[in-house]
Amino acid sequence: MSRYAAMFEGLARKKEGAFVPFWMLGDPDLKTCFERIVTLVESGADALELGIPFSDPVADGPVVQRAAMRALHAHANLDACFELLSKIRAKYPQVPIGLLTYANLCVARGEDWFYGQCAASGVDSVLLADVPTLEAEFFCKAAYKAGVDPVLIAPPNASDAQLKTIAQWSKGYVYGVTRAGVTGANETLVLSASALIEKLREYGAPPMMLGFGISKPEHVKQALAQGAAGAISGSAIVQLGVDEPGRLGDFVKQMKQATRD
Predict the structure, then answer these.
(1) Are 179 and 201 spatial neighbours (Cβ–Cβ below 8 Å)?
(2) N or C: which end of the chain has fewer CB within 10 A?
(3) What's the CA gap between 122 and 149, in Å, rounded?
(4) pLDDT for position 19
(5) Has residue 220 got a pLDDT over 80?
(6) What is the Cα–Cα distance from 237 to 40, expressed in whole angstroms?
(7) Higher pLDDT, 56 or 51
(8) pLDDT class for 189, splitting at 50, 70, 90?
(9) CA-based max dimension of the chain
(10) 21 with 238: CB under 8 angstroms?
């Protein structure tokens, strides 16, 4: 059983949803990044969504873009990120780890090398945010070959044909986005994902977790009420790491508690 399947099964037994924080590898530097990730896991994160810094992140809003630039300035290159991932995996052997990154980083040294490094570092899944559904097959086959789960994005306006393709190729989970556009924390979140989630279930997709704009415990509750298996929070956590890093643990505890209420 994969780490994602074990996580979803264990949470279902406890009648909880998953809370998954995002963090950029190498932000603000490699040493501090590891300490931040330890805080996230020790405070209740069920899984981790980690970014590899990239200079042209088309799906990321300003908060995550700045995180990527801090990491790049701190020399968080691809090799350093895989080394850090191995360190995280060694400390947390059971926590699912997903990467959210971009196709250029995957193909720069060849897709087989990239997914092979993911597998060797203990990465469970990879989401390439700039690969459209029609182009997903090439990357998904390379991921399968290495034993890594490819995760596809389900946008709110996806057609039936797109949803069938997403259900066919996604493993581990499906990343559902709450709205069109780039990442960013929302004060008010209007979710209408129930029909999308139901369609994906009908087509046999793995569980969906919702991201983009998840910044408050109420948003986590809304996501789960829509039928999502979990919620992913990125920009709110990254910004808190800049403004008040001492509050990161309490924030994660509050967001995790919202999956139990």
Answers:
(1) no
(2) N
(3) 12
(4) 98
(5) yes
(6) 10
(7) 51
(8) low
(9) 45
(10) no
What gap in Å lies between CA 219 and CA 199, rounded to an integer? 22
pLDDT at residue 203, as a whole number: 96
Q: Give the integer Cα–Cα distance in Å for 164 and 202.
A: 9
Q: Which amino acid is at 74?
A: A
Positions marked catalytic: 49, 60
Confidence of residue 57 (pLDDT cuts 50, 70, 90): confident
How far is Cα 115 from Cα 178, in angstroms, rounded to an integer?
28
Q: Are 19 and 45 in contact (CB under 8 A)?
A: yes
| Amino acid at the residue 43 | S
Structure tokens at 180: 């069109």
DSSP string, the chain: --HHHHHHHHHHHTT--EEEEEEETTSS-HHHHHHHHHHHHHTT-SSEEEEPP-S--TT--HHHHHHHHHHHHTT--HHHHHHHHHHHHHH-TTS-EEEEE-HHHHHTT-HHHHHHHHHHHT--EEEETT--GGGHHHHHHHHHHHT-EE--EE-TT--HHHHHHHHHH--S-EEEESSSS-----SS-----HHHHHHHHHTTPPPEEEESS--SHHHHHHHHHTT-SEEEE-HHHHHHHHH-GGGHHHHHHHHHHTTT-
116 or 61, which is more confident?
116
- Give the per-residue pLDDT at 61: 85
What the block records as the tokens of 17 is 């949803």
Q: Strand pairing partners for 100? A: 51, 127
